[in-house]
Design brief:
Order of helices and strands: EHEHEHEHEEHEHEHEHH
Structural class: alpha/beta
Oligomer: single chain
Strand order of the largest sheet: 3-2-1-9
Number of strands: 9
Length: about 200
């Protein structure tokens, strides 16, 4: 959470795009990169970024099964992110020894993780689950928890999320537009990353 105000949420259909994409994000000032496990190319993309972009801190997102955590760690992921969290998934992510952001959408889910000593969480889907008003409301009773809101967060509201005391960073896919990735427009990605990296928090 402390590496940058924004974690790019990346969906890659072609692992060949992974390295130039990661280099563009790092050049723009965003070292933490979440590659989502939504495509067959995701694990190979993590392998390549881990091996060829040493300044990047590559992680795996959309970790939904215990085996996802194990495979991501084996591929070279340095952190894990899940959209929600079950007890089995939590155990599997913890067993990798990697930092992880388990997903929550309610106060009860956050409390259950806090009972196990976890105080850094993904808030997902942020906008659909109540957005900024919700995070403001639970900040009082749950002051120890820091969130990374993802889902509906973009350039129009990222700064407002980051202004909240219980938000450590935000996650978003707007930094890697699908058309820019397909076209190999890495300069556009770099510029978007630089704009996001300059957001105050």
């Amino acid at each position: 959470m402390d590496l940058a105000p924004v974690i790019p949420v990346v969906v890659l259909d072609d692992a060949d795009a992974a390295v130039p994409l990661a280099r563009a994000l790092v050049a723009g000032g965003l070292r933490a990169i979440e590659v989502t496990l939504r495509t067959p190319a995701a694990l190979e993309a993590i392998v390549r970024i881990a091996a060829e972009v040493p300044d990047a801190v590559v992680g795996a997102g959309t970790v939904v099964r215990p085996e996802d955590a194990e495979r991501s760690a084996a591929a070279g992921a340095r952190f894990l992110v899940s959209p929600g969290c079950t007890s089995r998934l939590q155990v599997a992510m913890a067993a990798t020894g990697l930092p992880f952001l388990p997903g929550v959408a309610t106060a009860s889910e956050a409390l259950a993780l806090m009972e196990d000593g976890i105080t850094a969480m993904k808030f997902f889907p942020a906008e659909a689950a109540g957005g900024i008003p919700y995070l403001k409301s639970i900040g009082g009773p749950l002051p120890r928890i820091r969130f990374c809101p993802t889902g509906g967060v973009g350039p129009g509201n990222a700064a407002d999320y980051l202004a909240l005391p219980n938000v450590g960073c935000v996650g978003g896919s707007w930094l890697t537009p699908a058309d820019a990735v397909r076209a190999g427009d890495w300069d556009r990605v770099r510029k978007l990353a630089a704009e996001a990296g300059a957001l105050p928090r």
